[in-house]
Specification:
Number of domains: 2
Shape: elongated
Order of helices and strands: HHHHEEHHEHE
Number of strands: 4
Radius of gyration: 27 Å
Distance between the termini: 48 Å
Largest sheet: 2 strands, antiparallel
Number of helices: 7
Length: about 160
């Protein structure tokens, strides 16, 4: 729990025990009156001013593993189609996480991680009306013909020419 929050709650309870009114405590500590009311009510019901631990399912990967995964997703695109790729497919990323960490993620959760890490989703097109012949040739070398797969790309790899 946050130290400042805990000290603030202790001060609220001490002032309440001395007989101060909620509005006075609010003014003295410069906190909203609703916060004072909540803290006093919680202390009377539970006898404790600390927050309960949050419930919920623990994360599959710890913080160190997540930061390592973020670095890999942003800096090292996978090799596909016999060469180096410019981005990640969701299925390839799921397989990489499973192979590396032994953790199975769903498609949606992997997409949430991509968003959290700051990767951008692009949908490749075979041709763009403003694209040059050279750009189309490079595209055809990077992707399968008529590919409809979405690709997750790190912002540092996107060129805005």
């Amino acid at each position: 729990m946050n130290k400042k929050k805990l000290v603030n709650r202790q001060a609220i309870i001490q002032l309440h025990k001395k007989g101060k009114k909620q509005t006075e405590i609010s003014y003295l500590l410069d906190v909203p009156q609703t916060t004072v009311s909540y803290c006093i009510r919680k202390f009377k019901l539970t006898g404790n001013i600390e927050d309960k631990p949050r419930s919920g399912k623990p994360a599959k990967l710890n913080k160190m593993q997540l930061s390592e995964l973020k670095k890999i997703l942003l800096d090292f695109p996978p090799s596909r189609y016999g060469g180096e790729s410019i981005g990640w497919l969701t299925k390839i990323a799921i397989q990489y996480v499973y192979d590396t960490y032994g953790v199975q993620y769903s498609m949606r959760r992997m997409q949430e991680l991509f968003h959290k890490f700051g990767l951008n989703l692009i949908t490749p097109r075979t041709e763009h009306k403003n694209a040059s012949y050279a750009a189309r040739t490079v595209y055809r070398m990077d992707f399968k013909k008529n590919s409809k797969m979405n690709i997750w790309i790190a912002p540092s790899l996107i060129s805005t020419k």
